[in-house]
């Protein structure tokens, strides 16, 4: 038995060797990034329920040789291109948005086998070399799939590929919306419907960031996905991005959830800067009591009305309102409980880890990611400003009865944004309780961001 | 494919407008729903004030060991039971020695 040869083979097949292969250093950086995200999620408690999953997914996907997630296979699925399942090569040039040439494919085969210095070789020489490697067993006999389907992914993919099908099919964000609906009390919104104006105003950042992204060279679908970060709604951002620009899912999801955790830091300075002490001290009148019947009718009316208005919002609004109906009927307590707890937890688990898996080093470590991170914070800031400005307008129009601080809660981020309104209100007057008043715009923001997402999906998703 | 700046401006304004129009229309729908519901609530109340007052009910004594009748406002039975149990526990008295008149959620 060739002991040295066996040991050499083991070393070469190990993930450690992958770090020394071409681009392997990027994996090391991504593992460090994943550890930073884990630190933020665990120690700093930044949206830990999702960020810990995303970070761990990022860690797993960037360990060389793990084979849990295959970016090339998803590229083939997204671009409807052929895929070499044996050697894991997508026959599509994603950077240049065109089909791969025969020469590029042969070159990719050699690169996948770890052959360096193919520049000086002719195509014929490369082909001969590839055939020799196939003969030796270093390269696999190509297994070409004309088109990749979910069945192919389940057959050839790794664990995270299979879990990611739920994201790509738009399943997880919608299931999470059932849970959110079951956990949300729309009472404050029903009692004060004008809150919806604040929820609409706080979508300003979505469209400003969209425009800024176009200016920075992103395509329309990419810009729409980046803009929706300003909606401060994780599942909506994930659904929109998975439909419009799946290659940006990792950075967008990480930016969205990180900024949602940073809401107090982003919003408080803006709230203090844009409101006066007098405005912040405004104590709002108690809203009217909402009957049980109204709470039951509300999700039915909203679902029918909003879906008729913008049909592309059907998955998000339909699931959100279904979850809320389960909560309010009073006869489906078991289902409501499952939606709020078991279902929500299971889907959050799958969603986090599979979204994290998309942060493959070769694609994540790019200038685009930095641009997305910057645009994300711009989106959040302008959404806050939009809500505050309309809040100030309502303060004037109502003769000083509405505290403009509740406007900033119009960005979704339930209930964090409402808590920030409460905190800043209490800083001005310790006896000022704005939480319930801010919950109205807060839940209106969920509907608003779903409508914004529906619009962008309709415009760019065909 | 890159998007022309003018198209981006139009899309952004149109999108923001659609969100506003959608939510304003929804606000109108909710306002109408609220009006209908409050009108429905007001109608039986008005009818009951117009109707002659019923004969006063005989004062039925509560069964021994019960805490009497308690009026609940926007509080489910389960939560009311919990509130009463906590109060009794904090006061160190058995529940059947306390009399709760009403429990109302303070919003």
Beta strand % of chain A: under 5%
Q: Count helical runs of chain B.
A: 2
% residues in beta strands of chain B: 5-15%
Radius of gyration of chain B: 27 Å
Instruction: Give the termini separation of chain A.
Output: 61 Å
Largest interface: A-B, 46 and 32 residues
Largest sheet of chain A: 3 strands, antiparallel
**How far is the N terminus from the C terminus of chain B?**
52 Å
Return Rg of chain A in Å. 25 Å
How would you sum up this structure, described in words?
The complex is a heterodimer of chains A (462) and B (107). By secondary structure, chain A is an all-alpha fold. Chain A has 2 domains: 70-157, no CATH class; 168-461, no CATH class. Helices cover 69% and strands 2% of the residues of chain A. In chain A, the strands form 2 sheets. In chain A, strands 2-1-5 form a 3-stranded antiparallel sheet. A two-stranded antiparallel sheet of chain A has the order 3-4. The N and C termini of chain A lie far apart (61 Å). Chain B has 2 domains: 1-51; 71-104, no CATH class. Chain B has helices at residues 5-50, 77-91; strands at residues 71-73, 102-104. Chain B has a two-stranded parallel ribbon. The A-B interface holds A 189-190, 193-194, 196-197, 199-201, 203-204, 206-208, 210-211, 214-215, 217, 219-220, 223, 286-289, 291, 293-294, 297-298, 301-302, 305-306, 309-310, 436, 444, 447-448, 451-452, 455-456, 459 and B 1-3, 5, 7-9, 11-16, 18-20, 22-27, 29-31, 33-34, 37-38, 41, 74, 107.
Short description:
Chain A is mainly alpha-helical and 462 residues long. Helices cover 69% and strands 2% of the residues of chain A.
